[in-house]
Amino acid sequence: xxxxxxxxxxxxQKSAVTGAAVAVAGAVGxxxxxxxxxxxxxxxxxxxxxxxxxxxxxxxxxxxxxxWDYYTDAAYTDSxxxxxxxxRVATLVEQQRAAKGEGHVLLVDAGDIIQGTSLAYYFAxxxxxxxxxxxxxxxxxxxxxxxxxxxxxxxxxxxEFNYGIEVLRKFEQQCHFPLLGANALDAKTLKPAFxxxxxxxxxxxxxxxxxxxxxxxxxxxxxxxxxxxxSGRMVFPGLVEQAKKYVPRLRALxxxxxxxxxxxxxxxxxxxxxxxxxxxxxxxxxxxxxxxxDAILVGHTHVxxxxxxxxxxxxxxxVLLSEPYCWGYRLTVFDFELELHHGRWKVTGKKxxxxxxxxxxxxxxxxxxxxxxxxxxxxxxxTAVGTCTQDLSAAESCWKDVPIMDFIHxxxxxxxxxxxxxxxxxxxxxxxxxxxxxxxxxxxxxxxIRDIAGLxxxxxxxxxxxxxGAQLKDYLEFAAKYYHQVPAGTAVDTATLxxxxxxxxxxxxxxxxxxxxxxxxxxxxxRIRNLTYDGAAVADDQxxxxxxxxxxxxxxxxxxxxxxxxxxxxxxxxxxxxxxDYITSEGTLDPADFAAADWKLTQAGTxxx
Length: 609
Fold this sequence. Notes:
Elements: H1 8-16, E1 22-27, E2 33-38, E3 50-58, E4 68-69, E5 74-75, H2 86-100, E6 105-109, H3 118-126, H4 141-149, E7 153-155, H5 165-174, E8 179-180, E9 185-186, E10 197-203, E11 210-217, H6 222-225, H7 227-230, E12 234-235, H8 239-252, E13 257-262, H9 283-289, E14 295-298, E15 305-311, E16 318-323, E17 331-341, E18 344-355, H10 364-381, E19 384-388, E20 392-393, H11 403-419, H12 422-425, E21 429-433, E22 441-442, E23 445-448, H13 449-455, E24 461-468, H14 469-479, E25 510-512, E26 515-519, E27 528-533, E28 536-537, E29 543-549, H15 550-553, E30 567-574, H16 575-586, E31 588-589, E32 599-603, E33 606-607
Parallel strand pairs: 2-10, 3-6, 6-7, 7-8, 11-13, 13-14, 14-16, 19-31, 21-29, 26-32
Antiparallel strand pairs: 1-2, 3-17, 4-5, 9-12, 10-11, 15-16, 17-18, 19-23, 20-22, 21-25, 24-29, 24-30, 26-27, 27-28, 32-33
């Protein structure tokens, strides 16, 4: 797949103000792109023996442009004083370029760019970048912002595929930098569907250029999580497997530095169990098992790891890794020192740190470029779609059956019921869903799109899948791992009750349509008690239709049975939009129409709350 080179005139004009010597070359047949930048910081006529440069890194930006929360309709705020958005990060990037020299700085991202905020949804679905009715679509705000910031490359994230390949390809066309995915392959040819790598040449006056190979790797979980969008079109082998193929190729091309940008965490964990043969969070394994890597920009897990080293098992060399926090909370800075030996540059030192953009101003040029888009989305999300009879809060949704979650279940069951075949309509219907946001709240009075978006923050679609009673119990036992074991007679503290650091809130499904207790005094695997349907104990061979989102239906979070279960219903409509349609149709959201106490926590049979 050809890489979109940066517009030559735009690049040269931007670089001319710094006095940097710039040359730009397009994609080559191997799928790499080359660009040369220089820095006139060495005395003429002398061959430098040492040189330094930096690679700046972001990840999991999730379409956060400005320091704004579309769900609360206010400037972003949290208890730690963080800011969000690339507009502030852009200021840090320019500070780094000013301090170190244009020719000493590269800028890279590790994926999950075009999904995650109402801004992202608007330009994927409401006014899509792909265009509507034969009309050309707008430019994606993230493409505009990242082009302005002069990114050199970005890895594909798994959420890049949420809106389908057509939207992703249009975004790729709009970017002036390559989207890299060495393990995103065409399903038929098994050749790269995107550029695997790019090669940047850093010009050193009076000495050979420093060649920096940047290899991009994405997450194999895409095959499960976005199965509906990629099945039969793309396949996603493991990061280690593809790095073993391409790192030697970059070295053979004469790269002095090999840098990886991985949309994959660094702890070797996997949320999809044995559904795939590849590890989800494999950056540490790549560093350990693939020789020839200098450093890795890590993404996907939404944590901050300023600096981390892994020793390569074959060479004994230390590989430097760093993961900046998501949403533009942080910017990673990799600093490299090199020496010239026999005409070749060797890395002699490297370090990494993260910088916090919360103390700098937003880049005024990004504000100029994108404020109109931002204002358009603010107006959209504040559109009222109905009213609610009382305040519905998700604050206790992780340990109590609350009406706001029953709203999700009601919409899922009503939608699936309307789409079932006559035979499947005779089966008992239930729903499973997770509490995505503890801060979600639907107020009494007018209900807006942002109120619903704040409750259902993902762009999931809806399935109906068939599970037996025995399988359903296994499913709920898996969900009950979410809670720490709290012996009978011991006080329950909600602040420490959940395993939310390893079994996150979005992984925890509750069920509606059946009744059950979760006995947190028991060990994992023996917690589901009194599982009944319509007042009778659920039989092991009883067959249910389960309304469930596509992420879970395709194996997300590793729940048992559900991925392989027979499909009774499927739709491409987002659950969030179905919720908006429900309120629009009913006019009023009244928990009296759907709220039910289906489950509760117990300790040795005694209700906790």
